[in-house]
Amino acid sequence: MKKQLIAICIGLAVCSLTTSVMAGNAGEDILVRKQVNMLIPVSISGFSGEAAAVIKFDLSVLGIVEGSPAQYYITGNNNGRVEGHLANGSQQNMFAKVYQGSSIRKQAHAFAEDIVKEIRQGLKPIFNTQIAFRTGGQSIMEIGVSDFDGFNPTILTHDKSLVNGPTWVPGTRSLLYASWKSGIPQILEHNLLTGDRRVFAKYPGNNYSPAVSPDGRRVAMILNMHGNPDLYVSDINGKNLKQLTTSRGDAKSSPCWAPNSQEICYVSRSGRASLYKISVNGGTPRRLTTATAGGNMTEPDWSPDGKNIVFTSMTGSFNIYVVPAEGGTANLLVGGEDPCWAPNSRTVVFSRRENNKRVLSLLDVPTKHVKDVLQISGSCSQPSWAR
Amino acid sequence: MVFTMAAALVITVAGCKHKPVNPTDIPGHTRKSIVEAPANPNDGADRLKIPDAGEGIATSAPVDIKNANGTYDQPSDNSLFKQVMDGPHHEDRNIFAQDTIYFDTDSSVIKASEQSKLEHVASYFKSNKTDALKIEGYCDERGTEGYNLALGDRRAQSIREYLIGLGVEAGRVGTVSFGESNPVDLGHNEAAWQKNRRGLSILEIPDAPTK
Which of A88, A119, A150 is the last residue before a domain boundary? Predict the structure, then answer.
């Protein structure tokens, strides 16, 4: 709370400074750039029910929260359809739109998206995207998908066995995940449109932790085929399997891809677990410096814009850190685990342990602002954001 | 004596419906185990050595071929483990329940205090030639899901490697990691975590063929 007040005061001071020096849009551009890391206070009025809830939630996810003095005025109504208006702190009109078709919920998401385009510029839209996750208990888990905010959840599997690590095939409505339905983990490919499933990987031993390259052409996975959990890559059609890591006793885990689909970041458990990078063609792995982050580091995810890697640090408790993709100082973001970037390279979905279950939350990385996703009953973990 | 040997020969052959022809026992000689010839030496299948016929009494277990980094390939499609698991079979989770291996935090090392349990498991297979073994590796909740899958995997591998060192054939033993799933104790303290950091030896028994 104190941090928010300080951020708002600083924001206000900057606002006063720039409006006294410059007029109109130029001042607002500078304001926008300076406020990437700050919560932005706004006024929201005229909306009710679901429309109001969606607009407030969506903006809050991007660190735009109700507060004063308001830097922007968001007004309108949802009588039958959403009509929305955005004005700046001086009540100057920025845009006014009418949203039609589909549902009130979708209209409200579209309005929120237009607001974000003005207030936090240059971000890919996320309010119409989906997440996949794992839901269930200690021994029986199923795979689910929902809107990014947890609404409209669908449980996709009914195998009553263990599943792990759902991950999207980029640009498609398909998921890969590991399933223990056969008794031993195999990687399945699941087409959400047709409901069809096929076995993607059932090499001798255990197959798990699939990750598809952003260009959709390859899959990284962990196989213990040659007696140790190691990192392997194959084409998306399963051909050309290549073993990338070989060392005895160091369990590898949690591969994720660079946005250029040429490098993989993964965990190697040699002594303390650390993050490593390796070329998709193999070769010598390079350790990623994550200064100040202690404990075992695991579950990395590489931002779509290539700039940052989020990961979980385990020190008895779980904490999510972000580090520049080339390594450096890791910054503590929030208590939690299993982070996954949104397409906008700013929001991260993660899970945290609450009482005896796991819940999903959304993190605004620059402001560290957190919003819980609507919780599906049961325990939800291992979220994957469709990108 | 001769009658018993003949009966043993008959039983052995009858049980071999799905396997390649096994070398027949030579009366008067004791083998530690019956090994299978690889179907195709170049297909990455089990590379178990066939002891020479003239070896006499085998005093050491057949050598399972290690990979360059000291690991052993997982059982492949024509291994005993896969054949048992793919055919009608049933589990016995009790027979080796007292031989559950417990691990230290974040470790996959078989402690000295646990080793005698694995000697007990290995001794079962000195006389039993038809059953397979599934090692299940587990973790406590203090790791992330992805990390714990690999740690449970590594624990199961450690047990498997140790058993192979004691003479159990690599093709007989498979592993499954369950990560932090299926905990024995749902508590959030060391007493509970200790019970959950475990490796189980599960006997897999092929069902008797119906006539």
Answer: A119
